[in-house]
Amino acid sequence: MNSDKTYIRVTLCLAVSALLAARDAHAYVDPNSAGLLYQIFFPIVLALTLAWRWIKETCRQLWFKVTRKVAK
């Protein structure tokens, strides 16, 4: 029981010290790199969004067909 409390205290102490030691990164993102990432990720996000919309619409149409047949 006592070792559990010690483990929790050590973990909390390490977490707090890691948060207090954080500093600014002063990083630079090259515009060409950002443009390349945009060119890669934008079509992927667009394709996923359109695929989700198509799947949702197909499932909705199938649901309405099934419920109409069951209602008859």
Strand and helix layout:
Layout: H1 2-20, H2 31-71
Provide the descriptors you would attach to this structure in a database record:
mainly alpha
Overall SS class: mainly alpha
Residue share in helix: over 70%
Please tally the β strands and state the result: 0
Integer-rounded radius of gyration: 26 Å
Coarse shape: flat
- Low-pLDDT segments, ≥5 res: none
How many helices? The count is: 2
Arithmetic mean pLDDT: 87
- Distance between the terminal alpha carbons, to the nearest Å? 66 Å
In N-to-C order, the SSE pattern is HH
Percent strand: under 5%
- Let me know the largest β-sheet: none
Give a structural overview:
- The protein is an all-alpha fold and 72 residues long.
- The chain has a domain at 30-72.
- It has two helices and no strands.
Task: Write a short abstract of this structure.
This protein is mainly α and 72 residues long.
